[in-house]
Amino acid sequence: MIGEEDYLESITKQSPFFVDHATMLPSMKRDHWIAESLIPDTWYVTRREPWTYVSSPNGKMRVNGWKIHLSATKENAEKILALLEELDKAKNEMLSEAINSHFELVEWQLFELAKNGNYKSVCIPKIDGKSILTTVSNKCNRILGRVDICKSIQKISSISCPIFLDDSESLSTDNQKRVAGMVDSQLIMLIVNNSEKLEIVEG
Predict the structure, then answer these.
(1) Average pLDDT over residues 50-70
(2) Residue 83 to residue 178: CA distance in whole angstroms
(3) Bridge partners of 52?
(4) Around 100, how many Cα atoms within 13 Å sit in the side-chain half-sphere?
(5) Which one, of 165, 156, 158, 155, lies nearest residue 187 by Cα?
(6) Concatenated DSSP letters for 17-54?
(7) Other CB atoms closer than 10 Å to residue 84's CB: what's the count?
(8) How many Cα atoms are found within 13 Å in the side-chain-facing hemisphere of 64?
(9) Where are the beta strands (DSSP E) in the chain?
(10) Are 185 and 154 a contacting pair, CB within 8 Å?
């Protein structure tokens, strides 16, 4: 294993180990011709000298991921992939913890395990372990969660703007007071009642 200084020296033009890929293009193109003859006609081929990218029409590229060098063997590739799984898990847990630290009530689920065992990115706000995006969670928690999200985003972004809260009649008097105490900005609560006139109450 070469050290960092040795590596930096080897990539300068003064080094005997330096290779200018531009001078290799003719021979590299011949290699491309040999390899490309094996590629099915339905596959996509993109050329950005000196590289050629090949992809299957049935394959879907991941937004991000890991690469293993062509020189890897089956044994060390499996070991590397296992280590990367552990790294992915730790990274996802740290990211979730960092984001959730900004919210008082809502806990964001940002990842879940797919059927193949890999992590899948999601974005689900939850209170008491239940999504506030569906009726699985009760209406009070869905309202409280939305207020918490608005309040927290304003705080993170260093902005202050009014929050309009619909369905406020679904909250008990205590929870209406709780919502009012949660936000620092102006809160406008819309409440349906039996009155025939529009009433504006300041409190």
Answers:
(1) 68
(2) 46
(3) 47
(4) 17
(5) 165
(6) T---HHHHHHHHHHHHHHHHTTS-TTSEEEEETTEEEE
(7) 14
(8) 4
(9) 44-48, 51-55, 107-113, 119-127, 130-131, 163-165, 187-189
(10) yes
Report which residue type is found at 167: D
Mean of the pLDDT values across residues 65-83? 71
Higher pLDDT, 89 or 9: 89
At 10 the pLDDT is: 47
Strands 51-55 and 44-48: antiparallel
Q: HEC string of 132-177?
A: CCCCCCCHHHHHHHHHHHHHHHHHHHCCCCCEEECCHHHCCHHHHH
Question: How far is it, in rounded angstroms, from Cα 195 to Cα 197?
Answer: 5
CB 143 within 8 Å of CB 133: no
Structure-token pair, residue 83: 């280590």
Could you tell me which residues are beta bridge partners of residue 164? 188
Q: Tell me, what's the pLDDT at 201? A: 67
> What mean pLDDT do residues 10-17 have?
54
CA dihedral sign, ordered 138, 141, 143, 149: negative
pLDDT digit string (tens) for 123-140?
A: 999 999 999 998 888 888
